[in-house]
């Protein structure tokens, strides 16, 4: 199947029937994933496992309400099914810590509700004109919106399941072995100075914050070939990195003292060895996997300790997606072809990052590996609009978050689905966040002798 109309780089001359089949398949896949993560006893679903997270049953009904709002009401013009619950599932009216006290739908009622919404959504898909000039309908943007939104909530559900500490709730899966020796050393790749095109005007399901495409001129720099590994991060810990104020910004040091953190979240030291708790299972920390569950302050401190820095968002995107030979952006590091089992660890293929070096066929044009999948990677950049930004389809998706409160993450974790991952995709969060599947890689500016 040629998926160019939805996944590729050209939204012209789409085969409407073909794209509708793809959308229907993606809707089915994401809903199956949501129901799998909420296939648990009611007590687990209604309980709040952390003030940072919603009860799982809130997320489940919220994705249905979002789908009703945008596909049925906005794109389909259908009379609201459950307007009385809109307020309960408005994420901007009710902080996560307050959601357990709301009269939200119970597990069975939530499942019936989202099933009823989905049936009507498929009817709208049958009737909609994907060549409609309305930007919400054209190329099925509204369906891409709800598919990606649900996948993002599925990843949030996984973070909640991790925080619950309950074993047996998450499928493990298998991963390829890493390349021998890949986790040792601090391999870097060189990115020459010069302009590249950041963002996109071509990918029809891209969010407003990825637009418009614009040229950015960067000086030459080096960036890590791989994300920072558990083994490398452990060296920082054992060298007293958490206790040495030289490596911490003033804000980071305040966070460090307030949190009492001395290792990544879910790590403990026992009998001289480091262990992690992963979805209720206690296991030795694998040295060759990318470190995850670190906040921005921890990533920044490690980079300072290592004599490096975090890459800017622009540096990250150029190293990941720019093709200097073709002089154009790629959708993925390796090109425009869809992710496959030999290119990236995505879509909960396994419930953990893959060993470093596991996907050499997924390397970028500059030789950086595992930039898509594994862990969300912190960058040094604040979440800001691109020049010429226009809010669409609503300001609460991106616009209200712009500013210095949030740092940008790139790449997508092992829990992210390919439908919500591309070289231009921008994630953002508070610099204190650790429950997300976040890691990082380092960069450094090239010296005059290296240019």
UniProtKB/TrEMBL annotation:
Its EC number is 1.14.99.50. It catalyses: gamma-L-glutamyl-L-cysteine + hercynine + O2 = gamma-L-glutamyl-hercynylcysteine S-oxide + H2O. Keywords: Iron, Metal-binding, Monooxygenase, Oxidoreductase. Residues 186-444 form the Sulfatase-modifying factor enzyme-like domain. Coiled coil: none annotated. Fe cation binds at residues 62, 149, 153. The keyword Metal-binding applies. It is an enzyme of class 1 (oxidoreductase). Pathway: Amino-acid biosynthesis; ergothioneine biosynthesis. Belongs to the EgtB family. This is Hercynine oxygenase.
